[in-house]
From TrEMBL:
Transferase among keywords: no
Domain called GH64: residue spans: 60-419
PROSITE patterns noted in UniProt: GH64
Transmembrane portions of the chain: none
Stored PANTHER family: GLUCANASE B (PTHR38165:SF1), PTHR38165
Signal peptide start and end residues: 1-20
Alphabetized UniProt keyword annotations: Signal
Domain of life: Eukaryota
Pfam families recorded: Glyco_hydro_64 (PF16483)
Stated name of the protein: GH64 domain-containing protein
């Protein structure tokens, strides 16, 4: 399950500028939230659209939720957002009921003043509730302190404006927080811990179902500071702005570590030449050698070669230009974008090709077939995505999305995605603050 992106754009004056290192946040108000109209359906959770699921299954619509608090500091608040089975925007309240935010005609975000937080007890406590019905495109937000949510008009429908990890002036920017993604519908539950955008509050998952228990341990208790330290050391080695990914408040407190694709939206010159030589070497190699992409579908394996300026794959409806840094880090832009009319082969090649770039496996032994290598071969040469490398090193079991296609794995190899899923779920437990 891919993330529902936070909907808030960056303050216009910050885009394209070189920023001080580390990044310092200065939380603002509703007027510091800028919504990009062309991204309104990608960035804003819009009510009134069809949600997943048709209600015709044995899957449990009243899924149990346990919030296990192992965090040793400030009071913890949890916010549960998503869409009901009709597509309406909902929060799940502490009593296990849905709260529907009111619609608005305002194009300026309007603060939700209803108390939608689920407050947790102290360290060692467990808070239990049940979902009243299916929920899709959901997030369980966990914060040390408060988060602020807003409603905005989205073409006659209510749009939910969620906290943004990429806007230094977002009203919630000064909070320490993280989230779990989930959809529970007629097909069952899909939930994951995601660090695609940032590393923050340590979160893990445990899913109890009729078939047993699945667990994703999440990041270590000190992952934010340790990942930041590792990135600072890497910046000293290669001169790339890895240290700029560390985000602090005005007092100097470290809050989170931002993913490089998101940082580039703040400083579009960052990492500008980081991948250039590697990409050129890949293009040179596959001009005279064949790259085989295993689509892991009925289309089987397809052969790819560089022809002219593009990598072209057999049966693909279009080729791939040389990717730039934001393309590689984000996996959703430039040659790695997926259009509505793209064929099945293209939809299979994109995640596997981008994962190979992110993990720097295209030029190492065995890299001519993607995916084919085990995780021990990921991130072994430079340049690579050190953010993803260090995030995985500080996950207690190595599981949890560190980039968008972290679920790509060779047949027979485990996925690194940190996903729990089952058609007959009973109780989902979110473990907050690391192991007890």
């Amino acid at each position: 399950m891919h993330s529902v992106t936070a909907l808030v754009a960056l303050a216009a004056g910050l885009i394209g500028q070189s920023l001080a290192m580390p990044l310092i946040v200065h939380p603002g108000n509703a007027h510091d939230i800028i919504i990009i109209p062309e991204e309104i359906h990608d960035g804003i959770l819009v009510g009134g659209t069809a949600a997943e699921g048709d209600g015709q299954s044995t899957s449990n619509p009243q899924l149990g939720l346990v919030l296990q608090n192992n965090y040793g500091a400030a009071p913890i608040n949890v916010y549960i957002t998503g869409q009901d089975s009709s597509g309406g925007i909902v929060f799940v309240l502490p009593d296990g009921t849905f709260y529907y935010p009111p619609s608005t005609t305002s194009t300026t975000p309007v603060l939700i003043t209803e108390n939608v937080a689920v407050p947790l007890g102290g360290k060692g406590s467990a808070t239990s509730l049940s979902f009243p019905d299916y929920i899709s495109s959901g997030r369980i937000w966990v914060a040390a302190g408060d988060l602020k949510f807003y409603i905005v008009d989205a073409g006659g429908r209510a749009g939910l404006v969620e906290p943004s990890s990429t806007n230094p002036t977002d009203p919630s920017a000064g909070s320490d927080w993280g989230f779990v993604e989930l959809t529970n519908n007629a097909g069952g539950i899909y939930a994951d811990v995601s660090f695609v955008d940032f590393v923050g509050m340590p979160l893990g998952l445990s899913l109890k179902s009729r078939d047993g228990v699945q667990t994703v341990q999440g990041t270590s208790t000190n992952a934010v500071s340790e990942v930041c330290s590792a990135l600072q050391a890497q910046a000293a080695i290669d001169g790339a702005p890895w240290d700029a990914l560390c985000v602090k408040d005005a007092s100097g407190k470290l809050l989170r570590v931002m993913a490089p694709a998101d940082y580039i939206t703040l400083d579009n010159g960052a990492f500008s030449n980081y991948w250039t030589d590697y990409v050129n070497q890949v293009w040179d190699h596959y001009t005279s050698n064949t790259l085989t992409i295993d689509t892991q579908t009925s289309n089987g394996k397809v052969a790819c070669r560089v022809v002219g300026d593009e990598l072209k794959c057999e049966g693909d409806n279009r080729g791939y230009a040389k990717p730039g840094p934001v393309d590689i880090f984000g996996c959703d832009r430039g040659p790695f974008s997926i259009a509505e009319n793209d064929g099945d082969i293209h939809r299979a090649v994109v995640p596997r090709l981008c994962a190979a770039f992110v993990r720097s496996t295209l030029l190492i032994p065995g890299g001519d077939v993607q995916p084919s290598l085990s995780s021990e071969n990921y991130y072994t040469v430079s340049p690579t995505n050190y953010y993803s490398k260090f995030v995985h090193e500080h996950e207690l079991d190595g599981l949890g999305y560190a980039f968008a296609y972290d679920d790509v794995a060779a047949d027979g190899q485990p996925s690194a995605a940190g996903l729990v899923n089952n058609p007959n779920p009973e109780v989902l437990t979110v473990i907050i603050g690391g192991p007890a």
